């Protein structure tokens, strides 16, 4: 998969480089969630080469983790590699848990995680971050869509309690009275509910759990965790695996990032939050919820606290923020310049614009300004 340096130095091979970058990511990533084989094979974003500062970036940068941000990272990498000749960025889409393990083993320059580092993971990171520790840089926001496939049903409203009872196996049929009450005038079949969840440790699972625990504590009695906690349901690997099952199975429901639903034309649930109308999952509605986030981390750590119980008009409450996990100090000298250069681009106005163009939600400007300051300070 490694690109030959001589090809990268030829100005006439720029188009081939973009395609090669897409192939690298498609081959190494576990989630392919676009109709044509991955976001990296789509049209380039509006970012121009002038928006990307390569600085002293060089060689190969390995990263891994969250599948939630795969579409965004694919596009970022394509733009970045096209602008920075001689640099290869390889992001392996797996899961947040696997990304953090790889980071703390020192095998990647940064990891993507849909939840902030836990104290034990921070302590573990000190072994690879010489004189420092792992920190969380919020980079990608977005809604966790609840995709459904119920024959004859095109629109579906659910509230937190009903969602919890579907996923904890207490509501078993689509014509259950609780669902009918939320969908007056809709003919619901007696089809059995087939609920799909992530089979591996997942930050998306943890964020869904945070929402259910906060918004429906009596129905959802489990602590939020990367590992799926509830009985029943069926597991699938990665967001792509869950989306594929929902797409294929009548009566199915599952959770994944909105880009997976959009690319596969999967219908999504509108969430009844107590606002005047149920809220549809979108980049805009997620941005309204994320805008209320507060920085919970200290120092250079920018972990956020989200409000999962918001009733603000038009605010979609089931959101996640994906963090890029890096060392504040003690980054590997051979990849430090590339890490800083690449993350400077992803946090730039052009990099964040890629998010809003592809179903994600940009990080609020006030927080993103702090992200840029921290990136400059990495050593």
UniProtKB/TrEMBL annotation:
PROSITE patterns: PROKAR_LIPOPROTEIN. The gene is pstS. Belongs to the PstS family. This is Phosphate-binding protein. CDD domains: PBP2_PstS. The keyword Ribonucleoprotein does not apply. Keywords: Phosphate transport, Signal, Transport. Residues 57-349 form the PBP domain. It comes from the Bacteria. InterPro entries: ABC_phos-bd_PstS, PBP_domain, Phosphate-bind_PstS. It holds the Pfam family PBP_like_2. The keyword Secreted does not apply. Residues 1-27 form the signal peptide.
